[in-house]
Task: structure prediction
Amino acid sequence: MKKRVVVTGMGAITPIGNSVDAFWEGIRQEKIGFDKISYFDASEYKCKLAAEVKDFDPANYMDKKAARRMEQFCQFAVAASKEALEDAGVDMEKEDAFRVGCSIGNGVGSLQAMEREHTKLVEKGPSKLSPLFVPLVISNMAAGNVSIIFGLKGKNINVVTACATGTNSIGEAFRTIQYGDADIMLAGGTESSVTPLGIGGFSALTALSSSEDPTRCSIPFDKDRSGFVMGEGAGIVVLEELEHAKARGAKIYAEVVGYGCSADAYHITSPVEDGSGAATAMLNAIKDAGLQPTDITYINAHGTSTHHNDLFETRAIKSAFGDHAKNIKINSTKSMVGHLLGGAGAVEFVACVKEIEEGFIHRTVGLQESEEELDLNYCKESYQEEVPYALSNSLGFGGHNASIIVKKYAE
Result:
């Protein structure tokens, strides 16, 4: 028998708040995190806006020596993990450390370290490269640093599936607990790629919005959408086997009940045009949860604000749900925080849990009018209503599709 898995803690570092409470308050207030790029001079770049994390001080979460041995994507992950563990009330002295693991993904690693060390290599030669360059840059170090700092000795993995990373990371942690390989898993994703290479590279792909209006740059499902806005941050959740959580008197936020994946096997950046890959991932998650498609009334969409994604994801929803698609409320958290790449699905998972907890579906901020084929309910307004299930989608370059279903907890 598969074990039941619940959410007992959450942490978030986002462009609209550096805690779950601040992030959620920003969501409720329809706050947008978009502004001119401050990390470097972007005047010659097509894209001039990003959703940067504000007022982040790693000293609030770790000692200075540890912080110096981490790039920002790792610092974000450690900070969000600290909040999640404290929120869950996990006392590692009372746990078998080999039964507490971590599944924290990152899509890119540290572009900052790559840029910095390449400049040293070109200008000063290989002898000037930092001896820490490799452990600073590689993407698995978010999971590695979290494990080291908090003493997590169980399964430690780094899932890298581009923009599906956060959802896959939580899904793989869910599976780990379901099949008895851990009692507790820290799970989520992190990213910090607002750099010259990051912005320049995605701009060269014509993936980023060139709008200089913060209110009209990340506008998922809008007919005037022109690309996504790069965000950064981390979302981390504590997943726990139900009986273990109950035995220690943990607060239970929600239950994870379904996880589904697929591959488009189509194109390195574009989703398959008929949406069949994403539709299959959603249906796989629904089957895994033991549900029917009609049980789903809310979807947190991948909703990037690119022309292809929003159109093809709409086709996927119609394919998976048929006529019932018209009854589903669909929103995009990226309308406020931008696209956190490897951290996106994890931060959106936190939003889903809060929406279930408070019976509130947030608006897709900035959405005004959709084109003809985009004729579903993309939440031009917010709704105060019961949310029995939340289905969250993440679709990554390379054709990676991941869907996860969270349920309102009941005995």
Notes: The longest helix spans residues 72-88. The mean pLDDT is 98. The CA atoms of residues 41 and 196 lie 9 Å apart. The chain is about 35% helix and 20% strand.
